[in-house]
């Protein structure tokens, strides 16, 4: 039975920012200013323009230019304010996909699990496909082969493609949608290499794909080793996929192209300020940014998050949000990451657990992805963690793409988050996970021993399903 009752709960599943990192006093100051200044308060409390609060669009564009140093500065006409990356994904699908015409949603796997329902709500139940990733990100060659197969299957519909949605001048319907988290992915923490990003853009152009990038962890990066100092990174080390699309081989708006481009970048204030703000942005070509602003729900209600946009806009204009990210969040998350990684080295690596981080120059995001030694299973370890140690971790199966008969599976993996729990609970959480794994290995060994003895002594067939060799 449970031995956990006396232990405080440690939740390493929850992918939220720690309450100690929420900038409540900054937001309060911005809210006070916004609500006591009629020229800010009145538009903030009314319906907003379809593309969102104009000052926020400008401030975001300036910050993105500063952080990514793209070849061309980012301008506000490429930005549309969203209600966060999740809502933005829903709006992008409303405007740019069609459940009949769009062949499939290709999802880099393991994948952010809460995106699945957004795709299914948009009519893509049964059309989600998993694509493996390696340590350079999504496997573009695998994706190419699978898209080619799908195109072959639909060869006949090329001349008479059916579509549920009417044609609109502000939109286009893509044949495929690809979903990736290029930097410090949730859950694997993998970042895509530059070469992979370029290949992805070329593939997207060749097969009429919209690549939706959740770029929500980009501002949360730091040197992986302490030798490079403890401060974070004021500049992103790699261009975003959307920046590559803008300039590669004539660029998304170059001659012969329709100007919509093939990439949408979802940014969010959830991880860098507070998810309760429900404010983010989407960036693409001018046509794409305008198109998404024309989603029916936005046309009717005006831009999402209009009031909170005024707060965030002030924080960016004052430079306070940037300083919060560079001066508070990055160092705090870097310290948490290092605490967790050294606990993993101490408590889990000796048991045979592996993880993806060692050797990388830049770490970031919220998560560490662990692979358990054979024959342990993530789901079983997660269950025992809850029962024996009052510990919650996310088993790999949660991140498998649903409804894909050939789906890529993660039975031996577990995701742990270093952003939510108090820092001093991280080492304890990993130590408890070590206890669970050790206990499971002992029980597995004992069961193996019994199995061998039985086999040798009387060659009787013994099936030890529960608590035996097959237990994991
Ligand atoms: C990859 C990814 N996309 C989107 C989200 C949700 O973002 P938002 O709060 O902006 O909707 C998360 C949150 O965990 C995430 O990890």
From TrEMBL:
Keywords: Transferase. InterPro entries: Aminotransferase_I/II_large, PyrdxlP-dep_Trfase, PyrdxlP-dep_Trfase_major, PyrdxlP-dep_Trfase_small. Residues 38-433 form the Aminotransferase class I/classII large domain. The keyword Transferase applies. GO terms for molecular function: transferase activity. Signal peptide: none annotated. The keyword Cell membrane does not apply. PANTHER family: AMINOTRANSFERASE, LD15494P. This is Pyridoxal phosphate-dependent transferase.
């Amino acid at each position: 039975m449970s031995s956990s009752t006396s232990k405080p709960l440690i939740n390493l599943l929850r992918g939220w920012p720690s309450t100690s990192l929420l900038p409540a006093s900054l937001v309060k100051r911005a809210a006070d200013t916004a609500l006591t200044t009629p020229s800010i308060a009145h538009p903030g409390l009314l319906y907003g323009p379809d593309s969102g609060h104009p000052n926020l669009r400008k401030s975001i564009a300036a910050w993105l230019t500063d952080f990514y140093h793209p070849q061309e500065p980012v301008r506000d006409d490429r930005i549309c304010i969203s209600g966060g990356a999740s809502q933005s994904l829903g709006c992008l699908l409303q405007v740019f996909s069609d459940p009949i015409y769009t062949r499939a949603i290709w999802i880099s796997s393991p994948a952010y699990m809460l995106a699945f329902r957004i795709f299914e709500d948009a009519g893509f139940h049964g059309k989600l496909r998993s694509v493996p990733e390696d340590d350079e990100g999504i496997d573009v060659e695998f994706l190419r082969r699978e898209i080619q197969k799908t195109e072959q299957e639909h060869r006949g519909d090329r001349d008479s493609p059916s579509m549920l949605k009417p044609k609109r001048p502000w939109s286009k319907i893509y044949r495929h949608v690809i979903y990736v988290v290029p930097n410090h992915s949730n859950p694997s923490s993998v970042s895509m290499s530059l070469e992979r990003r370029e290949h992805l853009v070329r593939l997207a152009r060749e097969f009429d794909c919209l690549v939706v990038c959740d770029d929500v962890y980009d501002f949360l990066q730091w040197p992986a080793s302490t030798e490079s100092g403890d401060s974070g990174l004021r500049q992103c080390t790699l261009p975003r996929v959307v920046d590559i699309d803008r300039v590669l081989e004539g660029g998304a708006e170059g001659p012969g192209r329709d100007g919509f481009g093939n990439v949408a970048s979802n940014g969010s204030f959830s991880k860098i300020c507070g998810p309760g703000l429900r404010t983010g942005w989407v960036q693409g070509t001018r046509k794409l940014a305008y198109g998404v602003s024309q989603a029916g729900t936005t046309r009717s209600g005006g831009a999402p998050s209009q009031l909170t946009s005024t707060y965030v806009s002030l924080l960016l204009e004052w430079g306070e949000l940037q300083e919060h990210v560079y001066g508070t969040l990055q160092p705090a998350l870097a310290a948490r990451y290092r605490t967790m990684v050294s606990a993993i080295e101490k408590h889990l690596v000796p048991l045979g657990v592996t993880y993806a981080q060692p050797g990388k120059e830049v770490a970031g995001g919220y998560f560490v992805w662990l692979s358990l030694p054979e024959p342990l299973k993530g789901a079983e370890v997660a269950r025992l963690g809850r029962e024996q140690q009052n510990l919650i971790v996310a088993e790999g199966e949660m991140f498998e793409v649903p409804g894909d008969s050939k789906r890529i599976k993660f039975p031996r993996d577990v995701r742990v988050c270093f952003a939510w729990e108090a820092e001093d609970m991280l080492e304890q959480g990993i130590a408890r996970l070590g206890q669970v794994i050790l206990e499971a290995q002992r029980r597995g060994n004992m069961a193996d021993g019994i199995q061998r003895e039985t086999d040798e002594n009387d060659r009787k067939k013994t099936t030890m399903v529960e608590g035996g060799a097959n237990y994991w």
